[in-house]
Amino acid sequence: MGFSTLFKSTTFTLKMYRLYWPYLLSISIMMPVTYLIIILAISQGDLEALRVALTGYITITGFNILLYMLATLIANTFEEQVLESYALLPVSFWEIVISQILAQALIGIIPLAVGLVVLKCISSNINIPLLITGLTLEFAIYTPLAILLGISVRNRIRLDPLLVFLMMFIVIATPSYYRLLYIGDIYKTLLLINPLTHVVLVLRSAVGVYEGFPLVFSIIYSILFSTLLCVLVLYKLRGGAFTVLEKR
Questions:
Q1: Which domain holds residue 194?
Q2: According to the model, what pLDDT value does residue 184 have?
Q3: How many domains does the chain have?
Q4: CA–CA separation, 214 vs 48, rounded Å?
Q5: Rounded to whole angstroms, how far apart are CA atoms 28 and 30?
Q6: What angle do CA 190, 205, 218 make, to 5 degrees?
Q7: With a threshold of 0.90, does the pTM exceed it?
């Protein structure tokens, strides 16, 4: 995989967004800004509440950019008209996927940077290595899950309702905008099954908000779940090509 080929493939992916600019605008800018405004309004000057909500903002923004948009892109790759476009490029299936991941990472820089800058402004001390760990775990969970959904459904129209359901589920099943520390034991146990809960716990610990749960366990649990997703992706791709692009 050459850098020049990957650069051209990533540029091609970004250019494709000219066809979907309203969708891109709503997912990458309007939704994060809406979340941020609501967060600032609800916190009412409480810095701890604002730090709690901003870690949720980072998690939900990651869903919009890394999972929702990436899964849609990968599923769209299997559409006949898109295959014809990619057939003009001398790239493999994995080069296409990696270029799509890079494109999403570039698109997600602005909303993520906004959240991080606000966190920096309201936090007296940020554990940078722990913050990077949390962001890496978020990336390591969302990305293989997006690939898995995209190559399983292979149709953008059928995938969209599933992604909307996942978004609603994550909002409910992840303590994005509230403290895990203050909820009942039964509900807390259910939330701890969700690996994104552990990502949120790592991010909160990085900005000095502790939820009373072992941080090492959260990191290990997230890594194991990410590894499982990667194994499922490789299993899904075993023994054959999805498209002519994979045969190169």
A1: 3-247
A2: 87
A3: 1
A4: 20
A5: 6
A6: 40
A7: no
